[in-house]
């Protein structure tokens, strides 16, 4: 009973925090879609992977450092844990500055590659321009939350995300609906929301007297490399839905044109929330798994993993049922036209079919990187992307735009099969 209580104490706040992280873009899509129409909705959707990349970098570095912090807490090596905290903070700051410059220089080219053109392309560029100026807050805001969670502050991590989310919603309402700021207003609202999340994180560290150690001696390079090695997995796990978004948008633009891209926008928003909820389950149990692993309590580690499997599957089935019943109204929430709403209602069940597969693969991946099994985590994350890419080369040629949609759940099924294979292989070695 104690194990279940501890599990849900970490997982429920984590689920809400991850879901809210995805709501930033959805909120922007909701307000600009209703205010500016289908083209603005599609523009936010196409531009979102660039925003998500900032968040993924922050999550990768933050989780890479926080996992090592938790493992060292399990072995009671608190000095080393503080060093990982300090190195992560430096890496997050430098990454935020560099990514801001990179976005300002390359965004137009990248957006064209994603399939943005005409009015959609112009709106997407305007949105990303203002996102770029606040990149450091995006990176720091998402990167510090994992440390709070691994320091026992799961509720505080959720509070930081909620504060940022509410700020974003209020400013979207003000800047997009009441002031004529359009795409710029939506982007600025997102940046300020992330800045609020960052400030709440800083307040937590000050209140709890959690100080990073910025003296590394000769271990600086080792700490840096370890954070990168571990962080590649949570980075990939966070960003992989957006790689899916990029690939599907590109395929949809080539096979079905602008209407297909617009049709996919509300589907991607819905999918993002569900996948982030499932990632919240997996990353919510990560501190428990990492700490148990660091303590050498391997039975307890597997108990947390198996509990995560059950809960994630239950969440996915519930979401599938609710969304299937509401499929006819889903797109209208984002201001989509009646024609787009009808098409979304038709294709949404295709995407719903993959959520159960995702629930298994996400937990498996988090288990691997939480226990320093980086190779298995890499296979899980990047294998799914490669499979999706290959499917998009084949299925649309055979069945048209339907093949584009079908590629997503098929790749998710393949990832689940790989995860089961790797877990069974680990059991045989034990």
Terminal CA distance: 27 Å
How much of the sequence lies in strands comes to under 5%
For the sheet with most strands, the description reads: none
Oligomer: single chain
Summing up helix and strand content along with how strands pair, one would put the structural category as mainly alpha
Order of helices and strands: HHHHHHHHHHHHHH
| Residue share in helix | over 70%
- In the predicted model, the low-confidence regions spanning at least 5 consecutive residues are none
Radius of gyration: 21 Å
Transmembrane segments: 7-26, 46-72, 84-107, 127-148, 155-175, 181-206, 227-248, 254-278, 307-326, 346-370, 377-398, 404-424
GO molecular function: antiporter activity; xenobiotic transmembrane transporter activity
Main location: membrane
Membrane topology: Multi-pass membrane protein
Quick overview of this protein structure:
With 430 residues, this protein is mainly alpha-helical. The chain contains 14 helices and no strands.
